[in-house]
Amino acid sequence: MDIGNIALAVVPIFFSIVFHEAAHGWMALKLGDDTAKRMGRVTLNPLPHIDPIGTILVPIVMMLMPGNMLFGWAKPVPFNPYNFRREVPIRKGIMLVALAGPVSNAILALVFSFLLVLSYKYTHNMVLLKFFQYGVLFNVLLGFFNMIPIPPLDGSKVLMGILPPQYDKYFMMMERYGFFILIGLMATGALSILMYPVNYIYHFFIMIPTYIFG
């Protein structure tokens, strides 16, 4: 990926990561926990969310590597499930907070896909087309990747909220090794297989506004 494409990709990638983390904090706040809000994390201001390595360095390095695999993260949003409203079961609340991140990326992917199709239909501006294309692609990838049920990814908390409590001990054990498993999968290139389902989901999102606008 050349410097021009990197410059176009940085903004939607950066915004999507920030939006993902803010969504976690927003959902926790809706459930009754204001921890993230008090720490200034329920915001689209990127500064409180920036992790110098995960938000800036890693995405740039990944874009420079062959295979077009994009990856990045921001500072995790803190929340306290014991602050949830009394009627919110803790397991369900944790699951909803985790799910808010990938759902936010699905929403952004849909927004970017509409902008992409409308831009193609009315302007044919290649810079805008590339910008919106990266917006769709990275949000699909970020949302899909985070739904992998390996801690500390959101998918592990979603699955834990669905399965009976007796499986919690396995997730607790996975918490100790999950990050190293992910690093191993990245180092061996095994995560590149994600690009196959991501590609199908990407085209599905593009198909929605294409069908609407003809």
Textual characterization of the structure:
- The protein is mainly alpha-helical and 214 residues long.
- It has one domain.
- The protein is built from eight helices and no strands.
- It has helices spanning 3-30, 35-38, 52-64, 90-122, 126-146, 154-162, 168-187, 195-213.
- The chain is globular.
Task: List the defining traits of the structure above.
214 residues, mainly alpha, 69% helix
Draw up the topology in text.
Elements: H1 3-30, H2 35-38, H3 52-64, H4 90-122, H5 126-146, H6 154-162, H7 168-187, H8 195-213
Strand content: under 5%
The end-to-end distance, rounded to whole angstroms, is: 31 Å
Average pLDDT confidence is 88
Structural class: mainly alpha
Q: Flag low-confidence runs.
A: none
The level of helicity is: 55-70%
What is the string of helix and strand elements? HHHHHHHH
Number of beta-strand segments:
0
Number of domains: 1
So how many helices? 8
Largest sheet: none
Radius of gyration equals 18 Å
- Overall, the morphology is globular
Please state the oligomeric state of the protein chains shown: single chain
Short structural description:
This protein has 214 residues and is mainly alpha-helical.
